[in-house]
Sequence to fold (101 residues):
Amino acid sequence: MILEAFLLVAAALFCIGLFGALTQQSIVMLMMGLELMINGIILAAAAFWYFLAPASSDGQVIVVAVVTAMAIEMAMGFAVVTAIYRAKQIDMTDAAAELEG
Fold:
C-alpha cells in the first residue's frame, strides 16, 4: 500500500473521533471519540515511520508503548466514570460539570 492510503484512513479515524467527541454528551461516548482520535494519530505516526525508515524497528516499539499507555489511560478513565456513576448516578457531561469543588 502507499502512504496516502494510510494517511487517508488515519484522517478518517481522527475526523470520526472528533465528531463523536464534540457531539456526544455521554461520558463513555466522549471517551470512545477520544480513543478514535488517538488511534488515527497512532496510525499516521506508524505509517510515516514505516515509509521513512522501514529497516528500523524503533517505530514499532514506540507504537506498542503508546498503545499500552493508551489502554491503561482508558481503563483508568472508565474506572473513574464507573465510580462517578455508582456514587451520583451521573453519566452525562453536563451533569458531571456540577461535581466541581
